[in-house]
Amino acid sequence: MPIVSTEKMTARQFLQLGEDPPGVRLELVDGEIAVSASPQPPHSFTALRLSSILDHYIEENSLGILLSDCDTVFGEYDVRRPDILYFAPGREHLIPLDDAIQGAPDLCIEVLSKKTKRVDRVDKFKQYAKEKVKYYWIVDPMNRTVEAFKLVGKSYREAGRGSENDVVVLLPFPDLKIALSRLWLKETYNR
After folding, report:
1. How does DSSP assign 53-76, residue by residue?
2. Domains of the chain, each with CATH number or no CATH
3. pLDDT tens digits, residue range 108-128?
4. DSSP, res 75
């Protein structure tokens, strides 16, 4: 008879697994491994473009550090991988050179995919608020929308939104204007 473990996997145990297998992303959610497929082109394009815009602005203004797709420990049984993470100045010490991130970023950005919508809109929304991530953006490349939230007390409140070709200003970057038209993979690229 096979032995089945009912114990939750800890973040430490999860991080010892090493690199993800090809074609999948692994996260630890309440002690269980969650598997998702690698991003599709619209997700990848949007994440790369937004990262580029933010990184340039952050670097030029000495506003901290931007990372992407890093294991981030959100508790003893949770390791998430936000698509984009931002740490404000003075919080760089939370970013180790040889291990997972051990503290809440100032901003987490999730770029939606068909299969991750519920996780990003519900599960991560609650978890990031619980772990005191100050700002959370949800970017939807298929519907071409951006929603920004700010932590107020223990829950998120809408702090901005935009769609299609809008130009938006979203916290925590009150002086950065983002032309959303630059974030969407256009159908003309497919010809």
Report:
1. HHHHHHHHTT--EEEES--EE-ST
2. 39-190 (3.90.1570.10)
3. 999 998 888 888 999 999 999
4. S
